[in-house]
Specification:
CATH class of the largest domain in chain A: Alpha Beta
Distance between the termini of chain A: 12 Å
Number of strands of chain A: 6
Number of strands of chain B: 5
Strand content of chain B: 25-35%
Number of helices of chain A: 5
Helix content of chain B: 25-40%
CATH topology of the largest domain in chain B: Alpha-Beta Plaits
Strand content of chain A: 25-35%
Order of helices and strands of chain B: HHHEEHEEHE
Oligomer: heterodimer
CATH superfamily of the largest domain in chain A: Lrp/AsnC effector binding domain/regulation of amino acid metabolism (RAM) domain
Number of domains of chain A: 2
CATH class of the largest domain in chain B: Alpha Beta
Strand order of the largest sheet of chain A: 3-4-2-5
Shape of chain B: elongated
Radius of gyration of chain B: 20 Å
Number of helices of chain B: 5
Structural class of chain A: alpha+beta
Largest sheet of chain B: 4 strands, antiparallel
CATH architecture of the largest domain in chain A: 2-Layer Sandwich
CATH superfamily of the largest domain in chain B: Lrp/AsnC effector binding domain/regulation of amino acid metabolism (RAM) domain
Chain lengths: 159, 157
């Protein structure tokens, strides 16, 4: 990862838009004392650089039984990347991280039914060639989660 | 929190448009879906007021200078896990805290600017939190996928 230098205006934009992405450029321009064109240009650049993206976050209650689960995977070391790419294709998997530690891949997913989690972990992930061992852990309660910060990857992009 | 709130087909369609482009204005969404701009605006406001929707700018970890990500599985001893979890949630370095089932009690996600901060974070900050029996870290070396558009929404957030 390279060093990214964002000036104060970029940071103000990120902060304002994190609160509400639907505020107009004109309103932001007035609030920050810059022109609308500057706001438009900065937002576009931050998006192009993969530093800012806009999305709609819905509450857990949209599916009240939804639970976040961590699926920790031990995969053959020389196949970690292909295994991780395969896991990223599994439905309901939201995140796939390559890690150094007890496991070399950690996947996150949101599941409405325990059956679906078991099926995902045992039938879909454990059966991927190169996977040795899978352990799941269910988040029974979220104490803190900052959804305003993420790794911005383009859909289908694997790096 | 309103457990009773339910999304209908129109709500879902609007959310889908917002996921494609959170900055689309009401008129654009209305035209795509064959609704009026007023309906779009009313629906969005209703979902937001019920704390079921936030349309936000999500920034990359690197935009904040965070180059080190870690997941730490924590075992608790002699203290309620939820008390420890709430204390951990107050630390700015920790951006996610979950109470979990399984071998460990708490799972946290940590973002640091550089590895050199790890020493102080472990030995000055985390070591002061009572009740932590063991920590099993996993250092994130690459992110293959990271898509979270469902999350707990707190009031006023």
């Amino acid at each position: 990862m390279s060093d990214i230098v964002l000036d104060e205006l970029d940071q103000d934009l990120i902060r304002l838009l994190a609160r509400d992405a639907r505020v107009s450029n004109r309103r932001i321009a007035t609030d920050l004392g810059v022109t609308e064109g500057t706001v438009r240009g900065r937002i576009k650049r931050l998006q192009q650089d993969g530093l800012l993206a806009f999305t709609a976050i819905t509450g857990y209650e949209i599916a009240s039984k939804t639970r976040l689960a961590f699926i920790n995977v031990q995969a053959e070391v020389d196949r970690v990347r292909e295994v991780a790419d395969a896991i990223a294709q599994v439905p309901l998997i939201n995140a796939v991280l390559l890690t150094m530690g007890q496991f070399n891949i950690t996947a996150f997913g949101l599941f409405e039914e325990l059956d679906t989690l078991v099926e995902t972990a045992s039938d879909r992930i454990l059966t991927i060639e190169g996977v040795h061992h899978v352990e799941t852990s269910i988040a029974v309660k979220t104490i803190k989660y900052n959804a305003r910060m993420a790794k911005i990857t383009k859909p289908g992009e694997s790096d | 929190m309103s457990q009773s709130f339910s999304f209908d087909a129109t709500d879902h369609a609007i959310v889908e448009q917002l996921r494609l482009n959170g900055r689309a204005n009401n008129q654009q969404i209305a035209e795509t879906l064959g609704l009026t701009a007023t309906t779009v605006s009313t629906r969005i406001k209703r979902m937001e007021d019920a704390n079921q929707l936030r349309v936000v700018g999500v920034s990359d970890f690197s935009a904040h200078g965070f180059n080190v990500l870690m997941k730490i599985a924590i075992e608790i001893d002699g203290r309620r896990a939820s008390d420890v979890a709430h204390e951990l949630a107050e630390l700015p370095e920790i951006f996610a805290v979950h109470l979990v089932t399984g071998r460990y009690d708490i799972d946290v996600l940590v973002a640091l600017k550089e590895f050199s901060e790890l020493n102080a974070f472990l030995f000055d900050t985390l070591s002061k939190v009572r009740g932590i029996r063991s920590m099993t870290p996993a250092v994130v070396v690459d992110v293959v996928k990271y898509q979270f558009d469902v999350a707990p929404i707190e009031e006023g957030q």
